[in-house]
Amino acid sequence: MAAHPDGVGALFDDEGPLAGALGGRWERRLPQEWMARQVARTLETGAVALIEAGTGTGKSLAYLLPLASRLLEEGPEARAVVATYTIHLQEQLTVRDLPVVQRALGRPLTSAVAKGWGNYLCRLRLERVRQGQASWLEALEVETPSTDVVDRLARWADATDDGSLSTAPAGVGGDVWSLVAAHPDRCSRRRCPFYETCFYFAARQRMLQAQLIVANHHLLLSDLVVRREAGGADAAVLPPFRYLVVDEAHHLDDVATGHLGLELRRSALLGRLQRVARGRSGRALSQAATAALEDVRLVLDGLGRAALVAPVDGRGLESGVARTVRLRPGESSRWVPASALDAATDSLEHLASTAQRLAETLEVEEAGEGVSPADDRVVELRALARWAQQTAEALRQWTEAQDDDAVYWLEAGPSSELTLRAAPLDVGPVLAGELLGQVRAAVLTSATLACDGRMDAVRRRWGLGDRPTPGDFSVGERGESPAPESELLVEQEEDGVWRVVVGDAGAPSVVRDDGRVLECVIPSPFDFRRQALLAVPVDMPDVDASPYAEHLARLVADVARRLGGRTFCLFTSYRALAETRARLASCLEPYGIGLLCQGDMPRTALLDTFREAEGAGWVLLGTDSFWEGVDVPGAALSCVVMARLPFPIPDHPVALARAERLRRLGLHPFREDALPRAVVKFRQGFGRLVRSQQDRGAVVVADRRLLTRPYRASFLGALPRCQLLVAPAERIVREVGAWVAMPPR
């Protein structure tokens, strides 16, 4: 059977089911087959597998085929969740990969896509908007939709099968959708008159009947949080599932940190209180909301002023980036009086009790007029009561800052925005115990998980204990364990140019298994020695030196002119991006090369513009989100420039608190946390270049630390084997142009 490790290989034979399902697109990839065997083995033994599989492996089919086979073998009661980080991969799985799996296995597998409440139209809220009653409790801050827009929504609601935002008619913006979207706090469930035709609950019913559910990391962690708070599965976001696959898993602990933390945003908090104060719900509630609004604003304004003068642990204020200030136990009373904090929490609790009392009054006194617990007013009042009580508790928790296992800080934006945040320092026990420990088997996979050939860092962050030592064995042709180069060995030419082949991530696949957690590192099938050139300008100033920005702009401009555009430049901050943009515009315009910059338009639109022109005439500047999840195959993208090595911001409150915790545990913060995170992101940036067997291009790293610092071996050893060129910038520009122009061998 294909569900078992010994049988899964037959799926990938040249004349096998997958080849038949893909037809002319079939291309046998041994790493894909190796990964599928490990997935099948994990599902069979009930282990947790950490699988790194390089670009081009075909990870999605490598885990979907054995997973689907096992679900079909176990029957309709078996269910699995596949969670991705990006919408792009979620759509790829549902639109492209699952149909291939169905054809290859020759048996129907029920599947569904999981989306959050806000993705679905609420028929009741749409009806209220049509009646001019969009909200009884809160005054609207957006314009009432035009009759034409509402009528188009109504016609679409009668014709659509899924009622989700992705298929909504054109012209329905975010403001309009916010008035008609489903929301758990505004839903009366089975008591709603539209329950039988509700889009959200129809989608949930499809999930309950599906064996394979495609979700995203945020929904997966939302499900975990709801189960923790509700104490059971009744209120869960996802139905119970037996198997779990997390793709793009290097994001998992960061997403968990966000969901298990705390966030109070000034604009959202004051905005809702203001809407309730101006609503039509009656004098008592309006007065309670007004009092809470004044008391909470007093506290937040005081915190905002204090943030501007407090000693700063985090970043200074820059365009688009918040100034971060860490809060320690007992410090909040120095920023705002304790009496003001008490007044704010007390007034929020009074608002909660007032709303709850009004809901009970409506249920009892007006029952004779047909009012029931399903009445809109009752549902909204109970939701407001829960929100006000939870907000009071969160504000009190933040100001006390008593949890030693969490970090508390505030972010003061360049405008008047202020956000109070808290985050757990270690989400590992929750992930291991309440997520991975609740399924029969789990597979966590990504193109980048290891550092120095090991997964110690992610094991620790995911609560999976120390690295296993017994049971190392190869699943490829050779058995040696991958290890990074200990030194940078170079061949020096007469003109001072260094050339060498570096990188060891292309070493044979190695599995380490302790019977509980399986680690597997599988190389990319691409020939990076032929396809990729890594270049480091030896004459670049230090990244923190004042001349650096000017030299970087000149380097990017020279490369772009040589290639006619077709260049990405990746930054680690918006400020550096803005500085480079200001210098580049005048350098490129005379050559007909334009700039596409993150923030100018939506990310998808930027990439579509770049692809449609095949990159010619464009240079794209991006920060954090452009280091990964960007797929531009072919000649459209010929060069990636990394402005600097992507280390986490060392003085951000979360990074500082994590470092303090690791020191208390006797661990080295840089080696155990900052370096592995930087190496993973560096590898993600490198991975933007080669996306197919035919791609050819260069990665230019404008940061000499890649050559001079002791940690260079961790970065260079983490790359697939490729050619490294170390030379002056002028020589590198010529070599990059020649390399890109050279026909593949």
UniProtKB/TrEMBL annotation:
For whether the record's keyword set contains Iron, the answer is: yes
- Matches recorded under Gene3D superfamilies: P-loop containing nucleotide triphosphate hydrolases (3.40.50.300)
Please tell me which top-level EC class this enzyme sits in. isomerase
Q: E.C. number, please?
A: 5.6.2.3
Domain of life assignment: Bacteria
Question: Which residue ranges does the record assign to the Helicase ATP-binding domain?
Answer: 18-297
A molecular function (GO) held by this record is: helicase activity
Q: Does the keyword Zinc apply?
A: no
* This protein's UniProt keywords: 4Fe-4S, ATP-binding, DNA damage, DNA repair, DNA-binding, Helicase, Hydrolase, Iron, Iron-sulfur, Isomerase, Metal-binding, Nucleotide-binding
Catalysed reactions, semicolon-separated: ATP + H2O = ADP + phosphate + H(+)
Pfam family of this protein, just one?
A: DEAD_2
- Region annotated Disordered sits at 465-484
- Name the cofactor(s) required for activity, per the record: [4Fe-4S] cluster
Question: Belongs to which family?
Answer: Belongs to the helicase family. DinG subfamily.
Q: What is this protein called?
A: DNA 5'-3' helicase
Species this chain originates from? Geochorda subterranea
